[in-house]
Automatic annotation (TrEMBL):
Residues 143-186 are annotated as: Disordered. This is SNTG2 protein. One of its GO terms (cellular component) is syntrophin complex. InterPro entries: PDZ, PDZ_sf, PH-like_dom_sf, Syntrophin, Syntrophin_4th. The lineage of its organism: Eukaryota, Metazoa, Chordata, Craniata, Vertebrata. Gene3D superfamilies: 2.30.42.10, Pleckstrin-homology domain (PH domain)/Phosphotyrosine-binding domain (PTB). Belongs to the syntrophin family. Its main location: cytoplasm. Residues 143-160 have a biased composition (Low complexity). The gene is Sntg2. SUPFAM superfamilies: PDZ domain-like, PH domain-like. Keywords: Actin-binding, Cytoplasm, Cytoskeleton. It comes from Burhinus bistriatus.
Amino acid sequence: QTKTSIALLYDEVSENAYDIRLKLTKEVLTIQKQDVVCVSGSDHSANHRTVTLRRQPVGGLGLSIKGGAEHKVPVVISKIFKDQAADQTGMLFIGDAIIQVNGISVESATHEEVVHLLRNAGDEVTITVQYLREAPSFLKLPLGSPGPSSDHSSGASSPLFDSGLHLNGNSTNTAPSSPSSPIANEPKYEKRWLDTLSVPLSMARISRYKAGTDKLRSNAFEVLALDGVSTGILQFYTAQESADWLRAISTNISDLTLQNMKMANKCCSPSDQVIHMGWVNERLEGTDSSQLYKFKFLALKGSSFYIFSTPPVSTLDWVRAEKIYNLCEVLFKIHKLWLADDCWLQANLYLGIHQDFDLEDQRPYCFSVMVGHGKSHYFNVELGSELAVWEKSFQRAIFLEVQRTGSKTYMCSWQGDTLCFTVDFALGFTCFDSKTKNVLWRFKFSQLKGSSDDGKTRVKLLFQNLDTKQIETKELEFQDLTAVLHCIHSFIAAKVASVDPVFIDSQSIARKYMYSN
C-alpha cells in the first residue's frame, strides 16, 4: 500500500520551503518535485521553452506573474487563464520562471520591470521560460494547472501578489488576432511529479529535533538512511498530518527492522537471539555542560545489551560494538513521558521513579540504562510507542537471560575473609567461603525484606529468619556493587514474572500512558 501527500521541503540555509510530493511504500520513502516534461514531438531543450504569445483584445496574454529579484526569486507565472492566449499554447505552466522577454534577459529583473516589459511588448510577445522546481512556498503557487479564471489583482503590481497580464495592456491592434494555438509537429509538454530522491527505510532513522539540540521542529522531521543520506526537513501543513506521516514511516522502519532481526536470528543459536534493536538518541554530557545528542543503535541479543554507532549488518559487526553489557547487570528506567495533552509528566514525582538527571531536558520519551560502577546511559526515542517497546523488550531480554543463566556468583569480602555470593533463580541467595566452599548462610528471595548500601562498595541485606521471624543483617563488600544490586533486581523481577506475569504487565509505565497518546 502506497501513501502519498503534498508537503514542504524546508531549506535551513535560505529559510525557504518548497512544494514536494511524498510517496511512501513498505521499503522506500520517495521525494517528488514537479517539473515540465516533453511528452511528444521533437524536444529541443526540456529545460528551456520559447513560446510566442499573441495578445488578445479580451484577455491580453492570459496569465499572471509573481516574484522578482527583490525577493531573491525569479518572476514566475502564477496563474494561467483557461482558453486564453497562454493556455492555448499548451506550452506554459504555473511555476514557469520567465527568463527572457523578446530576447531581453529578465533573470535578475524586479517584478515591476517585468510587468512593464510584458505590458509594452507589442501584440506578439516571445518569452523563454524554465520550470522553477524549487519555487519558495511564500509565492503560494497553486499546484494545479491551469489556474482559476478569477483574478483579484489590482492595477498596482506587487511581487507577492499576482500581477494580471490578462488585461488588455497597451495593445495597438483592436482586431481579434488569431489564437496562439499549438502547431501539429510542435513538442507537447506536461507538468508531472518526478522522483528526485529515494530513501531506503531499512535501518533508517527519524529525527524531529534540530541537530544535537532539544529544539523540537514544529510539524517537521527528517528521515536519514543507513548511509546517512537525508530527505532534508519535511514540513507538514498541520500537526495531525505530521503525526500521521511520522507514525507511518516509523511503522515501516519497525517492520523492516523486524525482518532484519528474523534474518539475523536464522544464523544465531537459540540462546543468542536478537530480542529487539533500533535507533535512539543518546545524551552526551558535554564538557561545557551543554547537552548534545548523538544517534546510537541499540540491540538486545542473547546475554548482552549492545550500543553501536552504526547498525550491525554482518555477523562480524557484533564484536565492533562501542559498549557491551551483561543483561543481568543492567537496570532499565523510564524518566520522562509526554501525555496526550502535551503536558509533562515528571515520572519521578508521579510514579515514584528515581530521577537522577536534571529536569531541564526538554525531550519526551526518555529512558536510562544503568550499568556497572554507578554509570548510566541516557536515551531518548521519537515516539511513545517506541518507549513502550523498549521497556517490554528489556524486561523480556533480562528475564530470558536470568532463566538461561540460572545463577550468578560474585567474589566479595567481609572482615578480611574472601567470600562468594551467589544469586540463584531456584535457591535464592547463598554465601560461602571461597576456599573451603562451606555455606555460611542461605535465604530464599521471599526472605529478603530490605537493603541499604553506601553507594560505593558496601551493602547490608536484611533477611527474615523463617523460624524466629527475626531480621538478620548480612554485610558484604563488592568491587562493583552496582552490578550486583542490578543482578539481584533482575533475578527477583524474573522470579515474580515467572509466578505472576500479569503483575509485570501492570507495572509497565510506558504502556499505561503511551497508548492513551
